[in-house]
Amino acid sequence: MSVHDLRRLLRALPVFPASMPGFDTAGAPDDPDELFVEWLEAAIAAGVPAPHAMTLSTVDDGRPAARVLILKNLTGGEWQFATGSTSPKGRQLAAHPHAALTFFWPTIGRQIRIRGAVRPADRADSARDFLGRPPGSRAEALIGRQSQVLADPAELDAALAEAYAKVEDDPDLVAPHWTLYGVRAEQVEFWQGDPERRHTRLRYSRAGDAWSKQTLWP
Questions:
Q1: What is the pLDDT of residues 36-76, one digit of tens each?
Q2: Which end of the chain is less enclosed by CB atoms within 10 A, N or C?
Q3: Average per-residue pLDDT for the chain
Q4: Helix, strand, coil tally for the chain in percent (to 5)
Q5: Burial class (CB in 10 A: 0-12, 13-18, 19+), 179
Q6: 137 pLDDT more than 90
Q7: What is the reported pLDDT for 4?
Q8: What is the C-alpha to C-alpha distance for residues 168 and 135, in angstroms, rounded to an integer?
Q9: Tens of pLDDT, residues 183-210
Q10: Helices (H), ranges, 29-71
Q11: What are the structural domain ranges in the chain?
Protein backbone atom coordinates (compact mmCIF):
# COMPACT_ATOMS: atom_id res chain seq x y z
CA MET A 1 0.00 0.00 0.00
CA SER A 2 1.39 3.40 -0.97
CA VAL A 3 1.43 6.43 1.31
CA HIS A 4 -1.26 8.00 -0.87
CA ASP A 5 -3.48 4.93 -0.51
CA LEU A 6 -2.93 4.86 3.23
CA ARG A 7 -3.96 8.49 3.53
CA ARG A 8 -7.13 7.77 1.57
CA LEU A 9 -7.85 4.71 3.69
CA LEU A 10 -7.44 6.66 6.93
CA ARG A 11 -9.67 9.51 5.78
CA ALA A 12 -12.41 7.04 4.83
CA LEU A 13 -12.57 5.47 8.28
CA PRO A 14 -15.55 6.52 10.42
CA VAL A 15 -14.75 8.60 13.48
CA PHE A 16 -17.97 8.41 15.47
CA PRO A 17 -20.57 5.70 16.06
CA ALA A 18 -24.02 6.00 14.52
CA SER A 19 -25.53 7.18 17.80
CA MET A 20 -24.06 8.65 20.97
CA PRO A 21 -25.50 9.54 24.37
CA GLY A 22 -26.18 13.12 25.33
CA PHE A 23 -24.32 15.06 28.00
CA ASP A 24 -26.19 17.64 30.06
CA THR A 25 -23.39 19.55 31.80
CA ALA A 26 -25.91 21.53 33.86
CA GLY A 27 -26.87 18.33 35.65
CA ALA A 28 -23.30 17.17 36.29
CA PRO A 29 -22.41 16.48 39.94
CA ASP A 30 -20.02 18.73 41.83
CA ASP A 31 -17.45 15.93 42.20
CA PRO A 32 -15.82 14.40 39.08
CA ASP A 33 -15.54 11.02 40.82
CA GLU A 34 -19.33 10.74 40.84
CA LEU A 35 -19.58 11.58 37.14
CA PHE A 36 -16.86 9.07 36.29
CA VAL A 37 -18.76 6.30 38.04
CA GLU A 38 -21.94 7.29 36.17
CA TRP A 39 -20.12 7.22 32.83
CA LEU A 40 -18.34 3.96 33.66
CA GLU A 41 -21.61 2.24 34.53
CA ALA A 42 -23.11 3.55 31.28
CA ALA A 43 -20.11 2.25 29.32
CA ILE A 44 -20.45 -1.18 30.91
CA ALA A 45 -24.18 -1.24 30.15
CA ALA A 46 -23.44 -0.26 26.54
CA GLY A 47 -20.99 -3.15 26.18
CA VAL A 48 -17.86 -1.03 25.76
CA PRO A 49 -14.88 -3.45 25.67
CA ALA A 50 -12.53 -3.12 28.65
CA PRO A 51 -13.93 0.22 29.86
CA HIS A 52 -11.47 0.15 32.78
CA ALA A 53 -8.49 0.25 30.41
CA MET A 54 -6.72 3.60 30.33
CA THR A 55 -3.61 5.17 28.85
CA LEU A 56 -1.04 6.16 31.46
CA SER A 57 1.27 8.96 30.28
CA THR A 58 4.48 9.75 32.13
CA VAL A 59 7.62 11.80 31.49
CA ASP A 60 11.05 10.33 30.76
CA ASP A 61 13.80 12.98 30.73
CA GLY A 62 11.36 15.49 29.30
CA ARG A 63 10.00 13.06 26.71
CA PRO A 64 6.48 11.62 26.95
CA ALA A 65 5.89 7.90 27.36
CA ALA A 66 2.50 6.18 27.25
CA ARG A 67 1.04 2.72 27.68
CA VAL A 68 -2.32 1.12 28.48
CA LEU A 69 -3.04 -0.12 32.01
CA ILE A 70 -6.10 -1.11 34.03
CA LEU A 71 -7.74 1.18 36.57
CA LYS A 72 -7.68 -0.65 39.91
CA ASN A 73 -9.88 1.68 41.92
CA LEU A 74 -11.08 5.23 42.41
CA THR A 75 -11.08 5.95 46.11
CA GLY A 76 -10.57 9.04 48.24
CA GLY A 77 -10.11 11.14 45.13
CA GLU A 78 -7.24 8.96 43.86
CA TRP A 79 -7.23 7.01 40.60
CA GLN A 80 -5.23 3.83 41.27
CA PHE A 81 -3.11 1.59 39.08
CA ALA A 82 -0.28 -0.82 39.86
CA THR A 83 3.09 -1.72 38.41
CA GLY A 84 6.60 -2.59 39.46
CA SER A 85 8.60 0.33 40.85
CA THR A 86 11.63 -0.93 38.91
CA SER A 87 9.78 -0.86 35.56
CA PRO A 88 10.37 2.06 33.18
CA LYS A 89 7.11 3.72 34.24
CA GLY A 90 7.94 3.14 37.90
CA ARG A 91 11.32 4.83 37.48
CA GLN A 92 9.74 7.68 35.53
CA LEU A 93 7.20 8.26 38.28
CA ALA A 94 9.94 8.26 40.90
CA ALA A 95 11.77 11.00 38.99
CA HIS A 96 8.68 12.96 37.91
CA PRO A 97 5.69 12.12 40.16
CA HIS A 98 2.99 13.47 37.87
CA ALA A 99 0.94 11.63 35.28
CA ALA A 100 -1.99 11.83 32.88
CA LEU A 101 -4.67 9.18 32.45
CA THR A 102 -6.91 8.86 29.40
CA PHE A 103 -10.01 6.72 28.95
CA PHE A 104 -11.41 6.43 25.41
CA TRP A 105 -14.70 4.67 24.70
CA PRO A 106 -15.15 5.00 20.92
CA THR A 107 -18.40 3.00 20.68
CA ILE A 108 -20.20 5.72 22.66
CA GLY A 109 -17.99 8.65 21.64
CA ARG A 110 -16.66 9.47 25.08
CA GLN A 111 -13.26 10.36 26.48
CA ILE A 112 -12.08 11.20 30.01
CA ARG A 113 -8.75 12.85 30.79
CA ILE A 114 -7.14 13.10 34.24
CA ARG A 115 -3.99 14.97 35.27
CA GLY A 116 -2.39 15.06 38.69
CA ALA A 117 0.35 14.22 41.14
CA VAL A 118 1.19 10.57 41.78
CA ARG A 119 2.07 8.92 45.06
CA PRO A 120 2.78 5.29 45.95
CA ALA A 121 0.42 3.56 48.36
CA ASP A 122 1.73 1.94 51.52
CA ARG A 123 3.21 -1.55 51.36
CA ALA A 124 0.12 -3.21 52.84
CA ASP A 125 -2.17 -1.84 50.10
CA SER A 126 0.35 -2.74 47.40
CA ALA A 127 0.63 -6.27 48.80
CA ARG A 128 -3.15 -6.69 48.79
CA ASP A 129 -3.27 -5.61 45.17
CA PHE A 130 -0.51 -8.05 44.24
CA LEU A 131 -2.15 -11.00 46.01
CA GLY A 132 -5.44 -10.21 44.28
CA ARG A 133 -3.86 -10.84 40.88
CA PRO A 134 -4.18 -14.22 39.09
CA PRO A 135 -1.27 -16.65 39.66
CA GLY A 136 0.07 -16.09 36.15
CA SER A 137 0.15 -12.34 36.64
CA ARG A 138 1.93 -12.72 39.97
CA ALA A 139 4.49 -15.06 38.43
CA GLU A 140 5.20 -12.62 35.60
CA ALA A 141 5.59 -9.74 38.05
CA LEU A 142 7.96 -11.73 40.27
CA ILE A 143 10.45 -11.97 37.40
CA GLY A 144 10.89 -8.20 37.56
CA ARG A 145 12.56 -7.77 34.16
CA GLN A 146 9.88 -5.80 32.34
CA SER A 147 11.09 -4.02 29.17
CA GLN A 148 14.59 -5.53 29.34
CA VAL A 149 15.95 -7.04 26.13
CA LEU A 150 14.95 -10.70 25.69
CA ALA A 151 17.71 -12.50 23.82
CA ASP A 152 16.11 -15.95 23.80
CA PRO A 153 12.42 -16.89 24.36
CA ALA A 154 13.66 -19.95 26.24
CA GLU A 155 14.89 -17.60 28.97
CA LEU A 156 11.34 -16.35 29.45
CA ASP A 157 9.98 -19.89 29.64
CA ALA A 158 12.54 -20.84 32.28
CA ALA A 159 11.95 -17.67 34.32
CA LEU A 160 8.18 -18.13 34.24
CA ALA A 161 8.47 -21.77 35.31
CA GLU A 162 10.66 -20.76 38.24
CA ALA A 163 8.29 -17.93 39.21
CA TYR A 164 5.22 -20.18 38.98
CA ALA A 165 6.92 -22.63 41.33
CA LYS A 166 7.53 -19.83 43.82
CA VAL A 167 3.87 -18.80 43.70
CA GLU A 168 2.74 -22.38 44.24
CA ASP A 169 5.17 -22.90 47.12
CA ASP A 170 4.26 -19.62 48.82
CA PRO A 171 0.79 -18.25 47.88
CA ASP A 172 1.43 -15.20 50.09
CA LEU A 173 4.65 -14.24 48.34
CA VAL A 174 4.65 -10.60 47.22
CA ALA A 175 7.06 -9.07 44.72
CA PRO A 176 9.02 -6.46 46.72
CA HIS A 177 8.90 -3.94 43.89
CA TRP A 178 5.15 -4.20 43.29
CA THR A 179 3.53 -0.83 43.93
CA LEU A 180 0.01 0.51 43.92
CA TYR A 181 0.02 4.14 42.75
CA GLY A 182 -2.63 6.80 43.14
CA VAL A 183 -3.15 9.85 40.92
CA ARG A 184 -4.65 12.72 42.92
CA ALA A 185 -6.45 14.52 40.14
CA GLU A 186 -5.87 18.23 39.66
CA GLN A 187 -7.99 18.34 36.50
CA VAL A 188 -10.59 15.93 35.11
CA GLU A 189 -12.16 16.53 31.71
CA PHE A 190 -15.22 14.73 30.32
CA TRP A 191 -15.61 14.81 26.54
CA GLN A 192 -18.72 13.75 24.66
CA GLY A 193 -18.48 13.53 20.90
CA ASP A 194 -21.10 14.87 18.50
CA PRO A 195 -21.44 13.93 14.80
CA GLU A 196 -21.80 17.61 13.90
CA ARG A 197 -18.60 18.39 15.80
CA ARG A 198 -20.51 20.22 18.52
CA HIS A 199 -18.58 18.22 21.08
CA THR A 200 -19.37 18.81 24.74
CA ARG A 201 -16.45 19.26 27.11
CA LEU A 202 -16.67 19.72 30.87
CA ARG A 203 -13.51 20.33 32.89
CA TYR A 204 -13.25 20.00 36.66
CA SER A 205 -10.37 21.88 38.31
CA ARG A 206 -9.35 21.29 41.90
CA ALA A 207 -9.20 24.21 44.30
CA GLY A 208 -8.07 22.82 47.65
CA ASP A 209 -10.64 20.19 48.56
CA ALA A 210 -13.32 21.65 46.30
CA TRP A 211 -13.88 21.56 42.54
CA SER A 212 -14.85 24.19 40.02
CA LYS A 213 -16.46 23.36 36.66
CA GLN A 214 -15.98 24.98 33.27
CA THR A 215 -17.46 24.10 29.91
CA LEU A 216 -14.91 24.33 27.08
CA TRP A 217 -15.02 25.05 23.39
CA PRO A 218 -14.83 21.89 21.27
A1: 999 999 999 999 999 999 999 999 988 999 999 999 999 98
A2: N
A3: 95
A4: 35, 35, 30
A5: buried
A6: yes
A7: 76
A8: 8
A9: 999 999 999 999 999 999 999 999 988 9
A10: 32-45
A11: 24-133+176-216
Question: Tell me, what's the pLDDT at 122?
Answer: 96
Give the type of residue at 149.
V
**C-alpha torsion 193→77→126→120, nearest 10:** 100
**Which residues lie below 8 Å from residue 160, measured CB to CB, with a gap of 6+?**
139, 140, 143
Checking if the pLDDT of 150 tops 90, the result is no
Q: Which fold has domain 24-133+176-216?
A: Pnp Oxidase; Chain A (2.30.110)
* Cβ atoms of 191 and 217 closer than 8 Å: no
Residue 19 has phi, psi (to 5 degrees) of -140, 150
Predicted TM-score (pTM) of the model is 0.93
107 DSSP assignment: G
Rg (CA), the chain: 20
